[in-house]
Amino acid sequence: MTTQITRRSLGVAAAAALAIGLAQSPAQATETLKLIAIDGYPDRAMWVKEFSGFFIPRVNEELAKTGNYKIEWQEAYGGTIVKPRGVLEGIKLGLGDIGIVTTIFHNSKLPSQGISAVTPFVAPDARIVAKAVDEIAREFDQMNAEFDRENQVYLATGVVLDTYQMFSKKPINSLKDLEGLKIAGAGYNLRYLEGIEGAAGVRGGLPNFYNMLQTGVVDAAMLWPESAKTFKIAEVAPYMLKADLGAVNSKTVTVNKEIWAKLPDEVKDVLRKVAIEYRDHVASVAMDRATASLQAYIDGGGTVVEMSQDERVAWANAMPNIALDWAENLDKAGAPGSAMLTAYMDKLKAAGQTPIRDWAAELSN
Q1: Hey, which end of the chain has fewer CB within 10 Å, N or C?
Q2: Is 280 within a domain?
Q3: pLDDT tens string 65-87
Q4: Quick one: how far is CA 122 from the chain centroid?
Q5: pTM of the model as a whole
Q6: Can you give the residue range of the structural domain that contains 79?
Q7: Buried b or exposed e, range 40-69, using 16+ CB within 10 angstroms
Q8: What would the DSSP string read from start to end of 221-247?
């Protein structure tokens, strides 16, 4: 018996074969990875809010383009796993996989991260400072090496404040009014007080500044308007001296080194890319909120006094050259401190910033 083969029967056979093939070779499944994101600050802190609301969604969005991987995030902020000063150690020990290290708490372990903090009165623009510091980290290996020693991989440095200002319980109208005051700070910025007679720096953290001011532990605190608004500083420090001390990098996104080694290259690439986006996004948010936050401080009962340019010059010149000290200490440790400082100042000037004091100019003296 002869079987007649038609075009229709060939089509049916081909479709059946394809169906069998698909059944035998299932589509590649999306691999789910689990990451714990940590910060000791609460989620109302701007950079934490933006990490949760911008960084994580952007990573998810980028990974969804191929569908090869997705991340199941566990977010732990506000002391759930670590306190504000504990993020560096927490990621080092694997208590968190990825997080935002507040670098100003770790000057001895992360000295090169202090580059913008030791150069006050130069750049009150978070966007310019964030980009310049992160470029330094990519042009010099020092920042990466410091985090490597802490068992983590550097992704990007962020700037969350437009510029430090002075918030006080009593009016401050001049540099002389700072004499004899106890002033809260969080790291290198305490050195801004050197050269002011009788002024004493008191180390503290942002969540503690309200209580420190309220209880009289300090007379004033160096903060920025957005944080003053968020933490209701006008209630306990109703006077702000607008000195424009400068924007400072203080947040760095890192990943535990063992976790990083296990991540697929595609996921690593996405994390690197989005970290830079987060860097620029947070800096832009800081600048966008600066004016509104200042107005909110005033609406909350605060009074703003603008420091004269002459007083700002006098303050900058009264300080020891803390940038020179910083650079020379790194140089002595075999790190390129002087080269980093020169490159950083050049970047700021190239971006249109005019320093009241050129901290790198004294390197050759």
Answers
A1: N
A2: yes
A3: 999 999 999 999 999 999 999 99
A4: 18
A5: 0.85
A6: 31-105+125-161+250-291
A7: bbbeebbbbbbbbebbbebbeebbeeeeeb
A8: EEE-HHHHHHTTGGGT--EEEE-----
